[in-house]
Write a structure and sequence with these properties.
Distance between the termini: 105 Å
Structural class: alpha+beta
Largest sheet: 5 strands, antiparallel
Helix content: 40-55%
């Protein structure tokens, strides 16, 4: 049975548009291999697709073999389910590095390393905020004095156990568990490093606004002279 012609347009998730968009086929190349001794063959079809919205390109690899296996790969990798590291203006450089590497591990499906990174980040935050405790459990309990939201404390204990299993038992957590743990640590980062920054911005804005207001008892000398002449 002859192969069906490949359409010149298809929908693919675009990393830049952040949604499925129409892509235009710009070219293709086919490579195939056959091993007579093993009676086994493979075939790869490479296609260059260009998003019809933002015009960014993606290389699609369609793989198949004589055993009936098929797969599609995309280069660059499609980021549909990936997380993005958020910027925190007041976060120390070494903590920001751990946070970004942890998110990178999650996106790269390095789940054990991701869990280890979360644990290291939590330890680093406690150290930066001078939270005392003999171990991580004690430090998390010590956060109660600084955090108004006790749900964060409870959730931190949950992923402390997850980090222990990943580090000591090499048991990889599920991606959904890690995604939730990352959101919990981001709540903690928001409280300690982002809200303080926004509050200080608000204070500076208010001070700047007050400085621009000319008070009646501090009128410039020329203005005072004019008022005296009018009287």
């Amino acid at each position: 049975m002859p192969e069906q012609p490949v359409p010149k347009k298809t929908r693919i998730y675009c990393n830049h548009c952040k949604q499925d968009t129409n892509h235009d086929l710009k070219g293709d190349h086919t490579a195939s291999w056959w091993d007579d001794d093993a009676s086994f063959g493979e075939k790869c079809v490479y296609r260059l697709w260009v998003c019809m919205g933002c015009e960014h390109a993606v290389l699609q690899q369609e793989y198949s073999n004589s055993d009936g296996e098929e797969a599609f790969l995309y280069f660059p990798h499609r980021s549909r389910n990936e997380l993005s590291a958020k910027p925190y203006a007041k976060l120390k450089a070494h903590l920001a590095t751990i946070y970004k590497e942890t998110v990178t591990c999650y996106n790269g499906k390095a789940l054990i390393l991701c869990a280890s990174g979360l644990r290291a980040l939590l330890e680093g935050i406690c150290q930066d905020k001078r939270i005392k405790g003999k171990n991580l459990k004690g430090k998390i309990e010590g956060l109660k004095a600084r955090l108004p939201n006790k749900n964060i404390i409870r959730n931190l204990h949950h992923f402390r156990f997850m980090g222990n299993e990943a580090v000591h038992e090499l048991a990889a957590p599920k991606p959904a568990e890690l995604a939730l743990a990352i959101s919990v640590i981001e709540d903690l980062l928001n409280f300690f490093y982002e809200l303080d920054y926004k509050a200080s911005q608000l204070r500076e804005m208010r001070r700047s606004k007050k400085a621009k207001i000319v008070r009646p008892n501090k009128l410039p000398a020329a203005t005072h002279l004019i008022q005296t002449q009018i009287k």
